[in-house]
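Bumping with the actual sequence this time:
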Amino acid sequence: MGFDIRMPIGMLFSLFGFLLIGYGAGTRGNRMYAEHSLGLNMNLWWGGALLAFGLVMLALARLGRKQ
């Protein structure tokens, strides 16, 4: 069938999600980040969103390969 773009996109977003979650966990409780984002750790939230999107892309690539 050819090259499926969902696989590298899923891997890229999953990697960035893991990195951002790690950074958010490492800087949790830092006053500088809490002041600028209304007390929310946006690195954790966006890391989770990127990871979820990456996993969905990987799942779609796997389902597409089976068909």
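The tokens above came from a reply further down the thread. The chain has three helices and no strands.
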